[in-house]
Structure formats: C-alpha cells, structure tokens
Amino acid sequence: MNDQLSQTEDQEIIQSEAKPPAASARIMCVDVLRGFDMFWLVGGAGVALGIGKLIDPKVHAFIDRQLSHADWEGFYFYDLIFPLFVFLAGMSLSFSMGRTLNEKGLGATLIRLTRRCLLMFLLGVIYNGGFTNVWPEVRIMGVLQRIALSSLFAGVLFCFFDWRGLAASLAALLLGYWALLSFVPLPGQDSISWAVEQNWAVWLDAQILPGRLIYKIYDPEGILSTIPAIGTCIIGILTGLFLKRKEVEPLRKGLIFIGAGLVLVAAGYLWSYQCPIIKKIWTPSYVLVAGGWSILLLALFYFLVDFWQIRWWTAPFLWIGVNPLTVYMARNIIGFNDLAKRFVGGSIYAFLCENLGYFVQCSVSLGIALLFVWYLNKKKIYLRL
Prior knowledge:
The chain is an all-alpha fold. It has helices at residues 7-14, 29-55, 57-66, 78-127, 143-160, 163-183, 200-208, 226-243, 250-271, 284-307, 315-321, 324-333, 336-344, 347-352, 354-378.
C-alpha cells in the first residue's frame, strides 16, 4: 500500500491559496492546465478557427488540421485533449486517494473510488442520451465512461503498489496490448494489420459491445482500448507522486519533467515505426506520445504558474479547471453556441460577412461559457462525486 503519502502533502497541493513554491502550498498548475485542456472544448477551438479565417486561408487550414482528430493514424493537437484529461485524472488520484488512504484506510478508499467511478460512468451514459434515446440507440461507452474505468483500475493499483509497482503495471498493460495487436491474428485471418476492421480493438467492439457504436462497427472509447487508457492514467499518477516530493528542488523538478516528457515522446515516435500512433484504438505508441506531451505541458505550466508565478492570465482557466465535470455536462445541456446565435446570429452574422461573423459568434459563445464558469466559481457551485 502507498505509505509515502501524507495528509499534509495532499492538503498542500489541493487546498490552499497560490503562493511561491518555497512558501506555499498549493500547486496551481494542475488546475490551470486542466482548465486549459477544457478551454478548447467550451469555445476556444472555435475562436482559434475564427482567427485563422480572418488572417489567411493557409493559417485557417493549419489551425483546422490541428483542431481535428487524425482520421486513423497520426497525431495532432486535438488528439491530445482527451488523454491529457485522463493524465490529469491520474494526477488528481495521486493527491486525493493518498489523503483518503491515510485518514480512512484501504476499505473506505476502495468504496469511495468505486462509488465515484460508477457515478461518473452513469453520467457518461446520460450525457450520451441514455434517457432520451431508445435502446439499442444508447451509446454505452464514451468519454466520461473511459475516464471512470481508467480511474477505477488505476486507482485500485495505486492502493496496492508503490511507484515501482505502478511502473511495472504500466509496462505490462502496454506490452500486453501491443503483443495482442501485433502478433495474434484475428479469427479466420492469417496476417496482422493495424487497419480499421482488422485489429482486435475494433473486432471485439463489433462482437460484444452493446448499444450504439459511434463508428457503426466500433467505438473509439471501446472495451479493449480502455486497457492502454489505464496506462495513461498511471502515467498521471506517477507524475503526481513526483510532483509531491518535497525533497526535490523546484527547478530540478521542472527540468526532470521536461526530460521525462521528451523521452516519452521520442520513445512513442520510435515505437510508431512498428506500432502506429492511433488515437481511436489508443495504441501503446499513442500512450507514450500523448503522455510525453502531457508532461511537457505540465512542465510549461509548472514553470509559468508556480515557479515564476506569472499568473495574471490564469483566472479563466482556473474557473474551468476547478469545476471540470460541471463544465463538461453543461456544454451538452446548455448549448453555448446556440445561445450565441440568439445574440449575434441571423442578420448580424450576415452583416458582418462570413469570416468576421463566424469569429464574433464563436467569441460570444466562449464569452457565455466563461461567464457561466465565473458565476459557478463565485457562488462556489461545484459538481463533486
């Protein structure tokens, strides 16, 4: 069991106001990075595309490519959004579960973990239309469901293993998944392929996953590809454990993050010569590349926010980052874009011309979303599981 975590450490990272690293407590960069990650989902992507439209078609094409998922193989900025959130969920586990283990013991910790993950899974089903669609048009798997399952299994491992055991578990999960997809042919086939419809992740979804599959024959958050996603969560846990180590000098800590991130990105791209980087089945090379970029982003935010304390720009990201579940659910229920169209759609949009109208509408949508999270933060309204 993890006995290296103390209640004081957890409280320092999660609860107090932001101050210089030497004197304080709270590590703000995690919340800010989480808010930055979700910023693109609540309107940031639209504003960026709008800016591209106003500047030049080539600039817009570049931004559009980066803010779209790879069709199959490949890695773009938008392919980092989801694994970054899973990574940050792992970091949060290293903070919160360490405190619960110390205060309430193993049994209570496992019960709390299971309850929270189950509730998150159910919220994911509701988000996918669980109460509005008729079976079998209900999508069972999804974003929140993957976060829930990854957190559950990674959290259980965290309860029983120290960092060495977690690292070994990470290696076992990735190598096992890689070996299955690389060396075991599908039933009735003699050759191995990473193509759509010719790998185990897609095949298993088509065979046993009930409900609606987002790509007809498979789901990008399907059954088998959840295994390496657990690995992404473990990378987050290991990073969180290192972030909490007081004996490591802050500058050295940040530099180690940079080194670790670069190593993972390089290893992932090297592995991709045999094991392609494919988000939709969460290949092991994708885990390493996404994990490496996640750590590099954490290093950047750590230096900016906590080491150099350049924080004038962080407030909107903090509003989002401390209330991620509420924001994620609200973007589906409220529809910030639909509200924006009521203010600057129709004649106003037409008057402004296509490119400027698009930018203004996306900016208003983002503004409504930020106003919403500001109000939630001001009133201290948070959705906790």
